[in-house]
Amino acid sequence: MAEAHSPSTGQNFIHELIDQDLAPGGAYHGIAVHTRFPPEPNGYLHIGHCKALVIDFGTAEKYGGLCNLRMDDTNPAKEDQEYVQAIQEDIRWLGFDWGDRLFYASDYFEQMYGFAQELIRKGLAYVCQLSPEEFKQNRGSIGVPAVSPWRDRPAEESLDLFARMRAGEFPEGSMTLRAKIDLASGNFNLRDPVLYRIHFAHHHRQGDRWCVYPMYDFAHPIEDALEGITHSLCSLEFQDHRPLYDWVVSNLSIPYHRPRQIEFSRLGIDHTVMSKRKLRQLVEQGLVSGWDDPRMPTLCGMRRRGYTPRSIRNFCERVGVSKSENTIEYAFLEHCLREDLNESARRVMAVLRPVRLTIVNYPEGHSECFEVEHNPNRPQDGTRPLTFSRHLYVEAEDFLPQPVPKYKRLYPDGPECRLKGAYLIKCVGYRQAEDGSVAEILAEYDPDSKGGDPADGRKVKGATLHWVDAATALDAEVRLYDNLFSDPDPDGADKDFLSCLNPHSLEVLSGAKVEASLAHAGSEERFQFLRQGYFCADGRDCAPGHLVFNRAVSLKDSFKPAP
User: Fold this and answer.
1) N or C: which end of the chain has fewer CB within 10 A?
2) Taking phi first (over 0 means left), then psi (-120 to 50 degrees means alpha), and beta for anything else, what does residue 200 get?
3) In b/e form, how buried is each residue of 520-547, taking b as 16+ CB within 10 angstroms?
4) What is the spatial distance between Cα 404 and Cα 146, in angstroms, rounded to a whole number?
5) Structure pTM?
6) Which residues contact 405 (CB under 8 A, 6 or more apart)?
7) CA geometry: angle at 321 spanning 317 and 323, to 5°?
8) In the predicted model, what is the mean pLDDT of residues 18-34?
């Protein structure tokens, strides 16, 4: 279920510009703010998209306006209905809602075609027969104008050729429709850019009706204008495209005022790649288990790992909005998750690498029950029963046959240690397996220390240990995830990102033991495993009788805020 979303009241340069537009005398005075989020359905949304989501939907909420969801499906080669559905699911999971304002760029194909014809009639567009290679060769350079031998083609001839392009008479790459703007412009996006190209591909919604498709720079401003968008908020790489955006809406007979494009910096995170092409490559080459692999930066992968909508939104809002490109520490994203889960996650006992512990002076066949808090930060969540008996499981790392300096856990004749919420115990020996490993730890308990405190008030020098009751413990598989990439900058221009993969990004522990209350852990339900970290019931593989938990984040916070 999506968590309720409260709009951010923070101010940034985008809001300052909108305030100017809404003020008396401003371009949009008396007009409701209307934004849009326009993903291309050629992959799953990832954490990089979340910044735009928070800005687009959050800005509309801040000003009491509207935000459309629009599928930018103008390139059918990689687009699919699977991605359309996944995008909607992820946005709803984050807590945003577009109401009945779901649009598709392909819904406007007929109108766009008509607008292209309008530009041809006005002498502002023409059919060009340069091949892609010739187009590059004639593009010119700084101080050297581009060359376009078809620029003066009569409008009637371009209209005829454009209609025949649509009819499928010409092969791909043989013709394009280009805008007639300025071949000498210092902004290369204005050097008679391509508006339409021939592309024979099946469209996920339009089928085979079209074989000419509009370029994004032509389609997007038309869509914004037709939908009544006031502020087209987009990432910084579109800044140089803004003059073309304005040219398109200024030269077409769309009965609406011109939308305002405002650019902001993209979200960059270390140890991560954001390119959908590269993420698809990871999936298609089987280097991850799918788009929802918990190591992936996709929202479905992060959700499966245990991230919460609130932690992701908080991260994006705290990163802020600027025009300066920067890379955020992955540790800060984890920090935001810890903050949220520390408040909300239920505390439970889980032993990841178990070794049997027998309390030799505890009555055989006897057991008792302790009531423990679900979450000390939320007393309203109540308590749960936790059984205790002669035989328990503790972590293998909590025992050493021969202690090392400053070791304060279990070892023969070592200090008393607390079993969390139960009793004090003292190790009195151990038994070895045939291979020399520790098969069983032997201990004695103080029956007068129920709850973990000695009756005589003596000081306990040993550590507090977590445990599970062997009689009621459940088997579980636990997956320990780390960064998918060991290199902080796997997306660097001079790097093969696949060579930066972390070979230790996943460790699977198949013999973990967890307390009985986890028998019916809900899909994607999150917990704090005491002393271990925050974990999530795997949304794909976890089921009663086959428990699987993913580590969302460790307890230790490595993020160090700037002084």
Assistant:
1) C
2) beta
3) ebeebbbbbbbbbbbbbbbbebbeeeeb
4) 74
5) 0.90
6) none
7) 160
8) 95
User: What is the b/e burial string over 13-49, where b = at least 16 CB atoms within 10 angstroms of the residue's CB?
Assistant: ebbeebeebbeeeeebeeeebbbbbbbbbbbbbbbbb
Residue range 477-491: average pLDDT? 96
- CA angle 9/10/15 to nearest 5° reads 95
pLDDT score for 563? 52
Q: What is the pLDDT of residue 8?
A: 46
DSSP single-letter state for residue 258? P
One-letter identity of residue 348: V
How many angstroms separate the Cα of 153 from the Cα of each of 160, 181, 236?
11, 14, 35
| DSSP symbol at 7 | P
In three-state secondary structure terms, 317 is helix
Residues in the chain: 563
| pLDDT category of residue 325 using cuts at 50, 70 and 90 | confident
Tokens standing for residue 432? 């070895």
Give yes or no for residue 271 having a pLDDT over 60.
yes
The string of pLDDT tens digits covering residues 340-375 is 999 999 999 999 999 999 999 999 999 999 999 999
Distance from C-alpha of 425 to C-alpha of 412, rounded to nearest angstrom: 12
Distance CA 182, CA 189 (A): 10
User: Which of the residues are catalytic?
Assistant: 40, 266, 276
Distance of CA 509 to the CA centre of its chain: 25
Residue 229 has pLDDT above 90, yes or no: yes
52 near 106, Cβ under 8 Å? no
Q: Are 379 and 373 in contact (CB under 8 A)?
A: yes
Paired with 411 in beta bridges are none
Q: Report how far apart, in Å, the C-alpha atoms of 161 and of each of 85, 158, 289 are.
A: 37, 5, 47
Instruction: Record the tokens describing residue 252, joined without a space.
Output: 């077409």
Q: Which of 48, 537, 536 is nearest to 333 (CA)?
A: 48
CA angle 191, 194, 195 (to 5 degrees): 125
Per cent of the chain over pLDDT 70 is 97
Nearest CA-CA partner of 199 in 77, 34, 287, 114: 77
Query: Under 8 Å CB-to-CB from 205, ≥6 apart: which residues?
Result: 73, 81, 104, 106
CA-based torsion, 285, 289, 293, 299: positive or negative: positive
Q: What is the mean pLDDT of the chain?
A: 94
- Given the structure tokens 């996943």, which residue do they identify? 506
Which two tokens mark 186? 């210092």
In this structure, which long-range contacts are made by residues 133-136, counting pairs with CB atoms below 8 Å and at least 24 apart in sequence?
135/176, 135/194
On the question of pLDDT at 515 being above 70, the answer is yes
Distance of alpha carbon 429 from alpha carbon 415, whole angstroms: 13
> CA geometry: angle at 442 spanning 436 and 447, to 5°?
170
| Alpha-carbon gap, residue 447 to 332, rounded angstroms | 45
Q: Can you tell me the distance from the alpha carbon of 116 to that of 27, in angstroms, rounded to the nearest whole number? A: 27
